[in-house]
Specification:
Length: 333
Amino acid sequence: MRVTTLSEFIVERQHDFPFASGDLTRLLSSIQLAAKIVNREINRAGLATHILGGLGQENVQGEQQMKLDVYANDQFIHALRSQQEVCGIGSEENEGFLGQKEGLPASGKYIVLMDPLDGSSNIDVNVSIGTIFSIYHRVSPVGTPVTLEDFLQPGSRQIAAGYVVYGSSTMLIYTTGKGVNGFTFDPAIGSFFLSHPNLRFPTQGKIYSINEGNAMQCEPGLLAYLNHVKQEDAAQGRPYAARYIGSLVADFHRNLLKGGIYLYPATTKAPKGKLRLLYEANPLAFIAEQAGGLCTNGRERIMDLTPTALHQRVPLFVGEKNMVEECQQFVGK
Ligand code: P6P
């Protein structure tokens, strides 16, 4: 029997949204198209020197903007705008949200938050990178200009979230609140195929992912946890394995498939953590919980937090349920 394509899967599952008139289907399909286009450029990046290396300018985060960052941002914005379902976009690459001034229709029912190319500093060393996206119904009336309030919704109100990991193969993983499904891209056919149906964390993970170079800047409880995971205890599967790629989507994806926890705690240099609540923590939290895992900021459930700013940072503890609960015994006290 032929394997289901992502396009077929999206249409098959649209009955999960009894009131949707196919608009979420069209929205997800536009994300799929942009992912294919970005994937092609990433694969050519080694050859297409015009697209490698920095633009010599900084993005709103003050980070060196790689040309592929800008290219990916443009492609996702263009694809989302063309479907006319989205009234607003918040992106890591744009200081303010995009709305009707940028050609998005006030008639759109959805807003999208995205990190179009996370981990882009890894591009020129050929390490896997990713796109992360998060979708909400707007809260302001359809037909009116999109507002900041539409973007500052708690993660628990997401209607869909996903990521693309551009690695040895390119995969798109997403949830609409009915489980997590993974699709692998076949470049020979130009389609994503359902390769990882109903993804769930393995029951007891053994991998921990953290930049241990920051350990001396973290709270004592975290140092105690990092000591704990290194202690020999065969019954509990310790010492755990340290795995850290430095590319959030790649680290998260490996931990989802193999069983692990990803930690980016508050440090003295980054007192609110480094990662972004709206377009990194919340979408990964939605996926993690749908896959049987947990996601906190060390104290509270990430998806319960009410955002106050588009680019706000949070500490991130995300992964297999038992590992996050074990870590919580040490941190956040
Ligand atoms: P550090 C990449 O810049 C990123 O945003 C994530 O993809 C990654 O997990 C993290 O930062 C790495 O940060 O401080 O360990 O280099």
